[in-house]
Amino acid sequence: FCTKDSLSRLFARCGPVQSVEICEKPTPGEKKKKHTSKFFNKKTTTGFQVAYVVFRKPAGVQAAKALSQEGPLLISTESHPVKTGISKWIDSYAASVVDPEELRTEVDTYMQDYDKKIEEEEAKAAKEEGVPDEEGWVKVTRRGRKPGLPRTEAANLRVLEKEKQKRARKELLNFYAWQHRETKREHIAQLRKKFEEDKQRIALMRAQRKFRPY
């Protein structure tokens, strides 16, 4: 129930709030800003958490320190009630429905940024390869065995390699299953053979009147 919006609203009485960050535990310093996705890598944290409220002006920090003398801060009020029960479930369900266009836009933006980053790294590596630094050392960059391969083709090769490994694993399992059936069949055949030999030996002993079961 305690969200970034509710914290920003509560501490706005102390001064303009620049940002609110909620973490699982206290951190030693400022966290690097990461790309937050609405659809991927969403992690739900339960239990106690830590919130960092950043004010635009230093006076906001001093005013926030004095809030402890005014009593507790209420998250749910008449003007800003916190939804619970079926209303909260409806909002949670509505938020879980994915907009295809919004998802496609986020994926396309991420892939464009990723391709741009890879191109910059490859250009930087090609520029630095074979060039000695100030101390005369030459940086050797490790490139793939198939440089210049398009990303889509490389991905296809990885998929084909995985399919090949999966097929080989399946053939091996089938061989083990066949071997197990053959071993079981041979064992049954041996038991039948021994049973027939015992029958013949008992019949022979009866014929010779040497059979004494007791």
TrEMBL record:
<dbReference type="InterPro" id="IPR012677">
    <property type="entry name" value="Nucleotide-bd_a/b_plait_sf"/>
</dbReference>
<dbReference type="GO" id="GO:0034456">
    <property type="term" value="C:UTP-C complex"/>
</dbReference>
<protein>
    <submittedName>
        <fullName>RRP7A protein</fullName>
    </submittedName>
</protein>
<dbReference type="GO" id="GO:0000028">
    <property type="term" value="P:ribosomal small subunit assembly"/>
</dbReference>
<dbReference type="GO" id="GO:0006364">
    <property type="term" value="P:rRNA processing"/>
</dbReference>
<feature type="coiled-coil region">
    <location>
        <begin position="181"/>
        <end position="208"/>
    </location>
</feature>
<dbReference type="Pfam" id="PF12923">
    <property type="entry name" value="RRP7"/>
</dbReference>
<keyword id="KW-0175">Coiled coil</keyword>
<feature type="domain" description="Ribosomal RNA-processing protein 7 C-terminal">
    <location>
        <begin position="96"/>
        <end position="214"/>
    </location>
</feature>
<dbReference type="InterPro" id="IPR040446">
    <property type="entry name" value="RRP7"/>
</dbReference>
<comment type="similarity">
    <text>Belongs to the RRP7 family.</text>
</comment>
<dbReference type="GO" id="GO:0032545">
    <property type="term" value="C:CURI complex"/>
</dbReference>
<dbReference type="InterPro" id="IPR034890">
    <property type="entry name" value="Rrp7A_RRM"/>
</dbReference>
<dbReference type="InterPro" id="IPR024326">
    <property type="entry name" value="RRP7_C"/>
</dbReference>
